[in-house]
Amino acid sequence: MTHGRIAKWHVGDSSSDSDGDSGRGGRPHVSEYDILLTVDTDSLVEAAYRLDQFAGTVSLLVESQEDAHVAALLAAEGEEVEVGRPIAVLCEDPEDAAAHKQQPQRQYRKTWGPGAQIRGRDRAPGA
């Protein structure tokens, strides 16, 4: 898979009100294994099947790997994103999530795939 389209966010960010209604149908706090978002992709299908007339997409449910507070959603529903591009900011502490809203807009670096950087160095693909 090289890219996907964010079909639906199942969570909200820290600007949500206290009862968890974020306006995006989600919650600002997530528990381990909660569904964060649905991603649609056709690149996975093409790579897996390689059929000439197969046309379709695969919908992937992306789960949280731990309890967290959603500080920011960096990509909108319907947006096409490449693998490795940051799409959300999750924090362990609710105060950190709230403080994130007070900070100036940050640039987030690509974390996986060709051109990814870790600690300021280029990471070799597959490393």
UniProtKB/TrEMBL annotation:
InterPro entries: Single_hybrid_motif
Listed Basic and acidic residues bias regions: 21-30
Protein's UniProt name: Lipoyl-binding domain-containing protein
Source organism (scientific name): Chlamydomonas incerta
Region of interest called Disordered, as start-end residue ranges on this chain: 1-30, 96-127
Lineage, uppermost ranks: Eukaryota, Viridiplantae, Chlorophyta, core chlorophytes, Chlorophyceae
